[in-house]
Structures are given as C-alpha cells and as structure tokens.
Amino acid sequence: MVLHVTSKLSELAATSFCPNFRQTKAIRIANDEAFSITLKRTSISSVGKQRIRYEKSRGNYNRKYSPLSCVGLTERTVSVHEKDFLQVKGVTYRPPGSEAKLLDNVSFSLPEKSLGLVYGPSGSGKTTLLQVLAGLATPTNGAVYIGEEHTDCTKKPSHPGSLSARVGIVFQFPERYFLTDTIVEELMFGWSRQTQDPILRQTLTLRIQSAVYAVGLQGMPLEMNPRNLSDGYKRRLALAVQLVRMPDVMLLDEPLAGLDWKARADVVKLLTALKKEKTLIIVSHDLKELSPLVDRAWEMEMGGILTKQPWPSAMTK
Ligand SMILES: Nc1ncnc2c1ncn2[C@@H]1O[C@H](COP(=O)(O)OP(=O)(O)OP(=O)(O)O)[C@@H](O)[C@H]1O
Predict the structure, then answer these.
(1) What are the ABC transporter domain coordinates in residue numbering (predicted)?
(2) Ligand 1 atom nearest 285 alpha carbon
(3) What's the pLDDT tens digit per position in 237-250?
(4) What are the residues whose beta carbons fall under 8 Å from the beta carbon of 66, sequence distance 6 or more?
(5) ipTM of the complex
(6) Ligand 1 atom showing the smallest separation from residue 131 Cα
(7) Right CATH number for 114-126+156-316 from 3.60.10.10, 3.40.1370.10, 3.40.50.300, 3.40.640.10?
(8) Span from the CA of 5 to the centroid of ligand 1 (angstroms)
C-alpha cells in the first residue's frame, strides 16, 4: 500500500475537517475508507505536528488523533458509544445564509444520568452546540439520539418526537429572562392554556411540586416575585422551570457564572443531586469546581470542533 501526497486530498481534508489546522502533508492510504493526514497545529493551546486518521463508519468520518511530535498533546479520540443514552453523530451546523460552520462534524456520547462538561475558548461554538441539542437550531448534517430514539431535529417543539420535548436548556444568566411576577406563574409559563382541563391541572400541580422540591425552593412563598430571590435561588428557579417539563436531558450554559462562592457551592450541590435523575451537559469555564461531578469532558476548539479530553485533566489540579 503506497502512500503518496495528494494536494487535492490535503485541501479537502484541511478545509472540510480541520479548519483550524495548518496542513503540512497529506497521505492517501489505499482508498477513501480510511486515510490519515499530518497536520501542523497552530492554535495557542497546542502547537506541534499531529497525525489524524479518519475512519469511515456509517457514512461519517470519525477522527482519531495520534500525536507525532506534539507539545502538550495526548492521544484523543472522538467516538460515539452505541449503548450510551445520548448520542450525537456527525453534527455540523451552518446558520441559514452563512458559509461558515459553527459546528464541524461534532460527535460524542454520554451514558444516562451522568454529566458531560464542554469547555473551550469564547466564540468556539459551545452555546451553539447547546442550541442544536435543545432543538433551537436545526443541524445542517448529523443526528441526535436519545435513548433508543432518533429525535427528529426538524420537528417543531410541540411534537413529542422533537428534541425540544426531551431536552431542557438553562441559558447563561437565566434570571434575565424571567417573564412573570410570581414564582408560580414562572413555573406555569407556557401551560396556562391547558390548565382548564382538570386532569392536566392536577398533573401540572404534581410536576411543579416535584420540581420545587428537586431544587430546594419549597421554603419560598410561590406568590413571591422571582426578581426578589437571591442570585442562587434565581438559578434554582430557572432549573425548576425546565424540570416541570420533565426533560430526559438537561443542558446548562455557565450555571455558576456571576454567583458568589456560597451560591456557587449551592448550585454544585444541586447539580450533584440532579445528576441522580437526569443526564446533564454543562458548558462552563469553572473546571475545578465542577470537576468532582464530571464523567466525560470535551474541549471545543475554534471552528466548532469538539475533542474528547482525559478527565480529570491537568487543568483541574
Ligand atoms: N446565528 C449566527 N450566525 C452567524 N454566526 C453566529 C451565529 N450565532 C453565533 N455565531 C458566531 O458563532 C461563534 C460561536 O458562538 P457561540 O456563542 O456558540 O460560542 P461560545 O463558545 O459559546 O462562546 P462564549 O464562551 O463566549 O459564550 C461566534 O463567533 C459567534 O459570533
């Protein structure tokens, strides 16, 4: 099997798969089923040469990184475990009307009732990934599976097979989006038209009770204005609003941002409890505080490229 350098392949590989690598040499092996290329990494966090092997599986290429003469790099693989509860396969996202990919062939998986952490530089695409997983943006390519089901990313949120029906998302600084003047109205938001039906009303009451207990809000008067809650309790309420929808997967964007040390510790405790019930994906820069909770971690690189990281990492020590 011989290997020759092909400039066409190298261009293809460099542009389609690794926009933030500067390609130095590309090698074609046998046929298109698998190939490897040697690239020079130029990002600030890791500089050096690296060989990337692409293996084709079910129509998608899976990247396998093996360092050659890298500085600060370890072997990394991006793989999807077929038995995991949440499976994200080859998701690419290009906003409508834009040529730029915000997510580039993102694949990962996470077992049920475990916590996955996504970290990386500002503007790399972490929030975009959460929006796609929550069904708020439709991927250009790829698929998301929850449990045994292929969730249809193109379905409207009200459809039971949609991603939005299975996933809850708590945005960064969620308290900025409170819309009502009482805790109970905030928890019922979006349900009001259905509450004429006595059975649905009873179901909603039970769900609210359960969500309130799950986040430790049971001591608070439900008629209180949510804006008068402490910052930590506002975060609890934002979580409860999503829990009322009974999602299987919860996504949290920077859940500790802007909180004091006490509220941060409370939210970490709350997430520890929540992990026993839900599958969680958290985007955060607070690696040390969240470290004890993390089961899997991925770094998002500029250009929307996600790579799995060994955990706990050197950064948490
Ligand atoms: N609808 C859009 N159209 C074009 N570009 C967009 C769109 N939404 C986001 N972007 C760009 O996509 C990139 C990724 O944004 P994103 O918010 O996902 O990054 P992030 O990693 O979450 O950053 P941060 O840590 O600062 O929140 C940014 O450069 C952003 O400006």
Answers:
(1) 86-316
(2) 25
(3) 999 999 998 999 99
(4) 50, 51, 52, 53, 75
(5) 0.94
(6) 18
(7) 3.40.50.300
(8) 35
